[in-house]
Amino acid sequence: MPGYRKTLSNIAEKQTSADLKRMVFFCKDVEGMTKRDLEVDSALDLFGKLEERGVLSPAKTTFLGKLLGDIARFDCLEMWEEYQRGLASSKDTKKGQGSSEHPDLEEFLSDDYLLKLSKEIHAKDREPLGIHLGIKELSKYEISHPGNLQGQVLAMLKDWKGDTMTDTKSDEKQVRFLGDCLAKTGRNDLKFKLLKAHNLSPATG
């Protein structure tokens, strides 16, 4: 498995000038990022700026995953996910047998998991799911990902995760909440898959 630097380099090589322009646009809201910081000639230069601003490192992988999803470069997102899976595997090896009854939240509600889920959401499901999740300004996803349903859904799910998945003690509660929202949208099939992936039984009460 390629390491952190090699993976970033491989991803950077695949970015077109249009990709770089869109990435720069999405990075404008990064705390501490200046206009001068965004005057970059390559994706690799931009990644260096993200490292300087503390949102990208071998352990901080969420922002770049979201960024690649935002620009609809799912091939590069898969490369980044491969790195993350290798990182998680390495941590598991060091930890040995886990003592938790259920898998860690990040293992399943990772960008890779959300990517797979986004592929199963139909066009008619996107808006109702967003409403049940409490997402505001749903139209912004159509603007940022015109004509790209999967990109819209993935960005929406990542925003929800970023806003709510901060307390590790509430992992099971949040997973069940996502499942309930899928059910309310009429996708009990996806709720079942979600609970099964997390080794959770349907709530009985």
From TrEMBL:
Q: Which is a Pfam family this sequence falls into? A: DED
| SMART domains (UniProt xref) | DED
PROSITE patterns assigned = DED
Q: Which domain of life is it from?
A: Eukaryota
Give the matching InterPro entries. DEATH-like_dom_sf, DED_dom
GO process terms (BP)? apoptotic process; regulation of apoptotic process
Q: Where is the DED domain?
A: 3-82
Record keywords: Apoptosis
Q: What is the protein name stated in its UniProt record?
A: FAS-associated death domain protein-like isoform X1
